[in-house]
Design a protein that fits this description.
CATH topology of the largest domain: Serine Threonine Protein Phosphatase 5, Tetratricopeptide repeat
CATH class of the largest domain: Mainly Alpha
Oligomer: single chain
Number of domains: 2
Mean pLDDT: 74
Radius of gyration: 23 Å
Low-confidence stretches: 1-12, 110-133, 154-162, 245-253
Number of strands: 7
Structural class: alpha/beta
Strand content: 5-15%
Strand order of the largest sheet: 1-7-6-5-4-3-2
Largest sheet: 7 strands, mixed
CATH superfamily of the largest domain: Tetratricopeptide repeat domain
Order of helices and strands: EHHHHHHHEEEHEEE
Shape: elongated
């Protein structure tokens, strides 16, 4: 059993402290801890581009899964289409992972609604062909375009992550009391109740929890408290418990 400690947080700082904690862990060589922090944050806030791009950068700089890194960078670029840095990161990581280059959605047109409508109308009139052969060519082009977009979505967004799937917390209630339980990929994320701090043999309980969740597709368990601080993680054969520590003494001025 391994026991580690993590620091306290408050409601105001929790959102941004996720990035700081992940960066600090990665800079100290604790890459898996950094990824676990980001994974849980992404489950709670899947549309935060800064979480996806940081996960991509950590994977890319630590010799991790480049395919996953490229997909998270692409997700960040899609969430913030005007961010050229995110786009370039997705392109570079895709090349390193030997993946097809990503195709990004076109930026939204600017200007008044009437102007946008007139532009769209003009483009549509210019696209409309005449004659049977021209219509057939247009249909083929449209089908190919839809196929490319669909393949791109599957390759870069839908297949790698998918949506978190809710699991029944009652299944593991005897081992660990949970307020919420979700599965993302092969990792189960749970939010413990206040009773967690009173439990004995917590490492064994986490291992038993992982065993019970294995049929659901979970290979690992990550637990956090109501303040989004990781309190435990483990598999069916080993667990790590993170104990809260007291705030440090203020430095003399």
């Amino acid at each position: 059993m391994t026991t580690e400690r993590n620091g306290p947080g408050n409601a105001t700082d929790r959102a941004e402290s996720v990035l700081d904690r992940a960066k600090a862990a990665a800079s100290q060589g604790r890459v898996q801890e950094a990824l676990a922090i980001l994974d849980e944050a992404i489950v709670a806030a899947p549309d935060r581009a800064d979480l996806h791009i940081l996960r991509a950068r950590i994977l890319g700089s630590s010799g991790g899964d480049l395919v996953s890194a490229a997909r998270h960078a692409f997700r960040a670029a899609v969430l913030e289409p005007g961010n050229a840095e995110y786009r370039q990161a997705a392109i570079d990581l895709a090349a390193r992972a030997k993946m097809p280059p990503p195709e990004f959605p076109a930026p939204a047109a600017r200007g008044s609604a009437g102007g946008a409508a007139r532009t769209a109308s003009a483009r549509w009139r210019g696209f409309l062909p005449t004659g049977t052969a021209a219509w057939a060519g247009a249909a083929l082009a449209s089908t190919a375009f839809v196929a490319v977009i669909g393949w791109n979505l599957w390759t870069w967004i839908l297949r790698p992550t998918g949506a978190p799937r809710a699991l029944d917390a009652a299944v593991v209630a005897e081992s660990v009391p949970l307020a919420r339980l979700q599965l993302m990929g092969t990792t189960a994320y749970g939010t413990v109740t206040p009773a967690w701090s009173t439990l004995a043999d917590r490492e064994k309980r986490v291992e038993r929890m992982a065993q019970k969740l294995a049929p659901s597709g979970a290979a690992e368990v990550v637990l956090s408290d109501a303040e989004n601080r990781i309190v435990a993680r483990g598999t069916s054969s080993a667990a790590t418990i993170y104990e809260a520590r007291q705030p440090p003494e203020p430095r003399p001025k």
